[in-house]
Amino acid sequence: MTFWEIGRLHWQLFQLCDEFYEVEEQVRKVSQWKTAITSEPFDIQYLVEMRKQMDVRQELWKYFEASTLAIQEWKETYFKKVDV
Fold this sequence. Notes:
The protein has helices at 3-38, 45-76.
């Protein structure tokens, strides 16, 4: 997998997270409306857990991306012959 492919995948993950956050906000608003009408909110604890998992996954991708770049740069580095 090339660095550019990894960057593209990370960007797609970032976009998915943004979409999730927008939907999460809408669900929270609907929950507030339901609470106002019926005095019973939606159970949105699963959204909190999903957000945590997505944040961790995004952080892992950042580390993976940085590591891949460092390895790629290391592979392109020329070593001088060392006389011992």
